[in-house]
Amino acid sequence: MKSTVLIAAIAAGLTLVAVDASAEGRGGPREKPAFAALDADGNGAITLAELENARSARFAAMDTDGNGAISATELVAAQEAELADRVAMMIERMDENDDGELQADEMKPRGRGFNAEHMFDHMDEDEDGAISQKEYDAAREARGGHRGGKDHGGRG
Predict the structure, then answer these.
(1) Rounded distance, CA 154 to CA 18, Å?
(2) Among 1, 25, 83, 117, which is most buried by a count of CB atoms within 10 Å?
(3) For the chain, how many structural domains are there in total?
(4) How confident is the model at residue 66 (pLDDT cuts 50, 70, 90)?
(5) Where does the pLDDT of residue 87 fall: very low under 50, low under 70, confident under 90, or very high at 90 and above?
């Protein structure tokens, strides 16, 4: 489990797009950095140098010991900080009763959210009221392949 989390964190770190080292300029979870955050000189255009500088700033912010390399510990810490920001924004956005926690009814799907009945009906190709391994695998393949390995638990 630890190695799976570490691999995911490293992969996420390696695919980081040029982002301002602070949370400023981000409009929410998983959003691209704001134009203004990347347009460092404010001239209305983003240059390659500005993108590279933003990337360098992000790297430097993650390299907390300043040794020019990001350790697994530093990468995990950076990902945990980003996750903490996302969680705080999620709670702020969804906490209808303002108690600082999310109850099940506050986490209901919004917009094009998860619809279990629709998903189940789509996957149950033979309409027998159950999803077989074959139907499950076919649905995963249709959505872009197997994401977790051969045993569907991420260890294949």
Answers:
(1) 29
(2) 25
(3) 2
(4) very high
(5) very high
Residue 108: pLDDT over 80: no
* Domain endpoint, select from 68, 83, 103: 103
Split at pLDDT 50, 70, 90, the class of 145 is low
State the Cα–Cα distance between residues 13 and 70, nearest whole angstrom: 9
**90: three-class secondary structure by DSSP:** helix
Which domain does 39 fall in, by range?
2-103
Which residues have CB under 8 Å from 124's CB, separation 6+? 130, 131, 135
Query: Residues 47, 78: one domain?
Result: yes
Residues 77 and 134 in one domain: no
Within 8 A by CB and 6+ apart from 95, the residues are: 101, 102, 106
Q: State both tokens at 100.
A: 């600082």
Q: What is the dihedral of CA 50, 55, 61, 66, to 10 degrees?
A: -100
Q: How far apart, in whole angstroms, are the C-alpha atoms of residue 60 and residue 67?
A: 9
* Average pLDDT of the chain to the nearest whole number: 77
Residue (of 15, 121, 96, 18) closest to 60 by Cα position: 18
> Is the same domain home to 26 and 69?
yes
